[in-house]
């Protein structure tokens, strides 16, 4: 299974569509702040949540299960991810998620905490926190318990030093 994870595309609907078309993922997750009309969002095979800059009525939070993995998807501003990831961890535990996808900070992150993976794809257009390039993430399952997370620039260039291989106990 191949999952494209994006966030904070801030009105760049055409760029978002280019990335979606190039990656040919089985599922797309957008962690909010898309800031476009709903017609510019990926359709059908996507889970999209609302960010603090969005006006389109989509859920503030969603859950999705694919490949035996339970995902929590949120923008993160309502969980104060800019200050601490602890509320996000608690929410993921509460819903039984193995992977918590979030945005808002514009800083790429993939970190295993206890029994879950916290994953921020960064911003598709506006990096922050000293990170020099915009980014998105691709998660691929490999084997029974492993996932690989890779980060790319919007033009498809691999960003070395980010992501990696993580163990996630899949559900049967």
Commentary on this structure:
InterPro entries: Calcineurin-like_PHP_lpxH, Metallo-depent_PP-like, MPP_YfcE, Phosphodiesterase_MJ0936/Vps29. Its cofactor is a divalent metal cation. It is an enzyme of class 3 (hydrolase). Belongs to the metallophosphoesterase superfamily. YfcE family. Keywords: Metal-binding. The chain is mainly beta and 172 residues long. The protein has one domain (2-167): Metallo-dependent phosphatases (Purple Acid Phosphatase, chain A, domain 2), CATH 3.60.21.10. Helix content is 12%, strand content 32%. It is built from two helices and eleven strands, in the order E-H-E-E-E-E-H-E-E-E-E-E-E. It has helices at 13-23, 86-95; strands at 2-6, 27-30, 46-48, 61-66, 69-74, 99-101, 109-113, 116-120, 136-142, 146-152, 164-167. Strands 3-2-1-9-10-11 form a six-stranded mixed sheet, with helices on one face. The chain has a five-stranded mixed sheet with strand order 4-5-6-8-7, with helices on one face. Strand 4 (61-66) and strand 5 form a beta hairpin. The longest helix is centred in the N-terminal third of the chain and has 11 residues, at 13-23. The radius of gyration is 14 Å and the shape is globular. The two termini are 15 Å apart. The relative contact order is 0.18. The model has no long low-confidence stretch (mean pLDDT 93).
